[in-house]
Design brief:
Helix content is 43%, strand content 17%. The relative contact order is 0.14. Helix 1 links the parallel strand 1 and strand 2. The chain is α/β, with parallel strands linked by helices and 295 residues long. Helix 5 packs antiparallel against helix 6 and helix 6 crosses helix 7. The longest helix has 27 residues. A three-stranded parallel β-sheet has the order 3-4-5, with helices on both faces. A three-stranded antiparallel β-sheet has the order 8-9-10. A two-stranded parallel sheet has the order 1-2. Bound molecules: (2S)-2-hydroxybutanedioic acid.
């Protein structure tokens, strides 16, 4: 649907042909091509500007995103190796869970291949922002289009921290409302997993969010100088090597990591931030250890 997409390459281990044929009938400018199986992966990736990776298995009720690590870590490693070999300059958007570990895995693999550019590796956390905006607008009866809540940390449970005090336009919330909203945003993915009752996790809202992040990246690549999104990236805003916060996107990827959102936090947010760092650190280290062990 985006006029910014000129060519769309679809890759999977099966069932791509039908999806590509289906999409190719839309009267939009982008040319659609399909690639099936590892033999066609290199051709799929040659000369692309942005790679979006949603591959892997989804959660079932009762599982955390980290429970997907054993299967999805290897899938992400294999795909990133191919990205490193075929399109090392591309923006890489990682959706595959657990994002808190798969992004560090990707960084390690790219380092091993000598092509790591931290400005071009992104964990997609846009759905947390989308959920935060929706839930806050619902609660306060606001026009959705106006609401913007920065969400920092990571993309799992308590590592997802919506900064409700920084909501635009500013909203007045009771302590109870802050707690209810924070917990609902943190559990948004689980809400969908439970509603689907074993048939997977969010796909449509995730696609919506991923499309928003992709559109922002394409606008930045096109030279738009006013593009901001939240994303899980290599970062110095805390002592952790990766952290989600607002970033400014430009032609070369991350142009700036906005640290000012972490100033002047409420007591509730400061406490939540300290608590999330412990879990996030463990997930990052788990990803790094996996990539180094499997070298
Ligand atoms: C989500 O936030 O919906 C995704 O990360 C999928 C999941 O497992 O929750």
């Amino acid at each position: 649907m985006s006029p910014l997409v000129s060519d769309l390459h679809l890759y999977d281990i099966a069932n791509v042909k039908g999806v590509a044929a289906d999409l190719s009938h839309c009267n939009t400018p982008s040319k659609v091509r399909d690639f099936t199986g590892s033999d066609e992966l290199a051709n799929c990736l040659k000369d692309v500007d942005v790679v979006v990776i949603p591959a892997g298995v989804p959660r079932k009720p009762g599982m955390t995103r980290d429970d997907l690590f054993n299967i999805n870590a290897g899938i992400v490693r294999t795909l990133i190796e191919a990205v490193a070999d075929n399109c090392p300059d591309a923006f890489i958007h990682i959706i595959s869970n657990p994002v808190n570990s798969t992004v560090p895995i990707a960084a390690e693999v790219l380092k091993q291949k000598g092509v790591y550019n931290p400005k071009k590796l992104f964990g997609v956390t846009t759905l947390d922002v989308v959920r935060a905006n929706t839930f806050v607008a619902e609660k306060k009866n606001l026009k959705l289009i106006d609401v913007d809540v920065p969400v920092i940390g990571g993309h799992a449970g308590i590592t997802i921290l919506p900064l409700l005090s920084k909501t635009k336009p500013s909203v007045t919330l009771t302590n109870q409302e802050v707690d209810d909203l924070t917990v609902r945003i943190q559990n948004g993915g689980t809400e969908v997993v439970e509603a689907k009752a074993g048939a997977g996790s969010a796909t449509l809202s995730m696609a919506y969010a991923a499309a928003r992040f992709l559109e922002s990246s394409l606008r930045a690549l096109d030279g738009d100088s006013d593009v901001y999104e939240c994303s899980f990236v290599q970062s110095e805003v805390t002592e952790l090597p990766f952290f989600a916060s607002r970033i400014k996107l430009g032609k070369q990827g991350v142009e700036a990591v906005i640290s000012s959102d972490l100033e002047g936090l409420t007591e509730y947010e400061v406490k939540a931030l300290e608590a999330l760092k412990v879990e996030l650190k463990g997930s990052i280290e788990k990803g790094v250890a996996f990539a180094q062990k499997e070298k």
